[in-house]
Structure formats: C-alpha cells, structure tokens
Design goal:
Distance between the termini: 32 Å
Structural class: mainly alpha
Number of helices: 9
Shape: globular
Number of domains: 1
Oligomer: single chain
Radius of gyration: 17 Å
Amino acid sequence: MTRIRITAATVALGLLPLLVLVVRALRDDLGANPIEEVSHETGQWTLRLLLATLAVTPLRRLSGWSWLAPQRRTLGLLCFAWAVLHVSTWVALDLAFDFGAVVEDVLDRPYITAGFTGFVCLVPLAVTSTRAWMRRLGRRWTRLHRLVYVAAAAGVVHFLWLVKADLLEPGIYAAVLALLLAARLVRR
C-alpha cells in the first residue's frame, strides 16, 4: 500500500467516529444530555488519538514497521481536530460563547484548567507540523514538540478529575500513557 493510501485510510478511520456521532445526532440518539455526550465523545477521541500518536514511535521501533512513522503527523493532526471539536463544544454549545464564563471555568475548575492546558499545548504542535516549520525551527522543533507529553499528561489528568467516581476508564488511559512514556525512557 502506498504512503498516500495509508494516510488516507488513517484519516478515514480517524474521522469515522465523527460520522457516527453525526448520525447519532440526526437520529436524536445522544441521550438525555446531548451536549455532554458530544463533549465526552470528542474528548475521548482526542485522548485516544493523542495516545495513538505517542504509540507510533515505540511500535515502529518494536515492529520495524517504517511505514508507521509518517502516520504520527496524521494522527497528531487528527487529535488536534478532535480537540478543537471538544473545546468548541464546550465554548459554543455548553457556554454559548460566554467568554467570561470560559475564563471563569478555566480559573475555577481544576479539571478544565488541566484540559485547557493540554489544548493550549496542542496548538503550536499543529501549527508547526509542516516540513517548512521543521526546517525553519531546526532543532528547536524537536524541543517544541515535546509539549506533546505535557498535553497527554494534562489530558489524562483532565479525564481523571472530570470522572471523580469510577476511575477505571481514565485509569486505563493513565496506564497506557505511563507505558508509552516508560518505553521512551527505556530506549534512552
């Protein structure tokens, strides 16, 4: 399979849950609180794709599958797209563009502070994901893109603090992140 086909398949798979979410919305099948359901779905897909992005390098090293390397950027940009949907759901649907309430939530609610921190870390990563930015920034590009670890940790903390009671699912995300970080430390 060519690189373009692999990337197209990655994009299609990364956007398939959005199609499912749209179909559910059209069928009025988002439950009693549709905004909360959309927010949770978009947030979970953001975190899943962020962890998938971090999994590319260790998986490539273990398997020898060099075709995985270019998919890291694609997965990262899909992650950012889902993060934008997640934040947009909160700002537009939940808070009706009340930016005073946005600032208040970020300052007063620790789980939102953590999630917003993760989102802010993803913005420069998405902006500088092109080859032109890689050339322009040189070695600083690699240092800048280490923000992905902060974003991932913030995303996991956001989910842990959001859930409060049943910590199994966010605990699984935390364990996967810990495993991915440990794989990088062992390599060094």
